[in-house]
Amino acid sequence: MQSHRLRSEEQQQHPLLERVAGTGSFREVSARVWFIQDGCGMVCAFITWFLVLYADFVVTFVMLLPSKSMAYAVVNGVLFNCLAVLALTSHLRTMLTDPGAVPKGNATKEFMNSLQLKPGEVLYKCPKCCSIKPERAHHCSICKRCIRKMDHHCPWVNNCVGENNQRFFVLFTMYIAMISTHALVLSMIQFFTCVRVEWTECSDFSPPVAVLLIIFLFLEAILFLTFTGVMFSTQIQSICSDEIVAERSKSEKFHRDRRARWERMKTVFGGQPSLLWINPFAGLRLRKLITSRTLKAGPEFAV
Fold first, then answer.
1. Nearest CA to 140 among 125, 123, 128?
2. What share of the chain is helix, strand, coil (3-state, %, to 5)?
3. Which of 139, 206, 218, 280 has CB atoms 3.0–4.6 Å from 90's, for a disulfide?
4. CB-based contact 165:173 (threshold 8 Å)
């Protein structure tokens, strides 16, 4: 505990620690499939998929297919389903991507001695997973691992949001907010249209069933839009106000912080601004999956 308080600017991480912690490239990390075997998280992930597919069902079969305007049905159907696919793909990438787990069990006495630390160099050990913790790594009690640049553990994606999957989580919240907004607009248009005419003419379902389906979709869209809107803005703010950047730019704070925010955005989303920033399929490599043994020290398995 005393080493934490007395740490000075000369005390820094051992240069071998980054290699030990496994800070691989985005492409290397994306090649692995990561899954947390947590009951609550799996139920929440299932509910998320169910609600998105329910919204797609109501929009397609209750609102658009019975529409007399072919152009209205086709344009809105294609747009909504494309956004739904992007949202669910972002959810899968967030859930199945290693968020930045630190190798556990490497903080042994023999390994520490092999690093040949110099005077003033400080390493931190996690007592829960017995791993050497890099800077800004935090232990997740659900994943039972230390996660690099861990933001939080989200049960709705059944995973931690960390260094390697933060981009996918931002895309997930963005696309969910977009389809929620689209569903709200379509619900209001459908409701007012059916009020002016006979309900039997604007939907293939009976009036009570159609009303209940549309009302439930309307409430779901409001809930999703509120939740994902807050999460999206929080994540963007977290990316732009990186703590390490703020510590390095105490002088001329406004000018350097502004430039550092843009660099941080490029780091998280990958390179210069392009359509790849909003593409959850970017970096995906389809390969033969060979299931490995479940690790005894945690609830996750990697493929």
1. 128
2. 55, 10, 35
3. 280
4. no
Six-digit token pair at 260? 């550092």
148 strand-pairing partners: 137
Determine the Cα–Cα distance for residues 165 and 98; give it in Å rounded to an integer. Answer: 7
Nearest to 99 by CA among 153, 161, 9, 46: 161
- For the record, the structure tokens of 31 come out as 């090649």
Per-residue pLDDT of the chain (303 residues; tens, 9 = 90+): 333 332 323 333 444 444 444 433 333 344 457 899 999 999 999 999 999 999 999 999 989 988 888 999 999 999 999 999 999 999 999 999 999 888 877 767 777 777 776 777 777 778 888 788 777 788 888 988 888 888 889 999 999 998 899 999 999 999 999 999 999 999 998 888 887 777 666 777 777 888 889 899 999 999 999 999 999 988 888 888 775 333 333 443 444 455 677 788 888 888 788 888 888 988 776 554 444 443 333 444 443
φ, ψ of residue 159 in degrees (nearest 5): -170, 165
- C-alpha span between 60 and 14 (Å, rounded): 56
Structure tokens at 170: 């931002």
| Strand ranges inside the chain, DSSP E | 34-36, 124-126, 131-133, 137-140, 145-148, 152-154, 159-161, 300-302
Active site residues: 154
pTM for the model stands at 0.78
Virtual torsion, Cα 256, 260, 263, 265, nearest 10 deg: -140
Gap between the Cα atoms of 183 and 64, Å rounded = 11
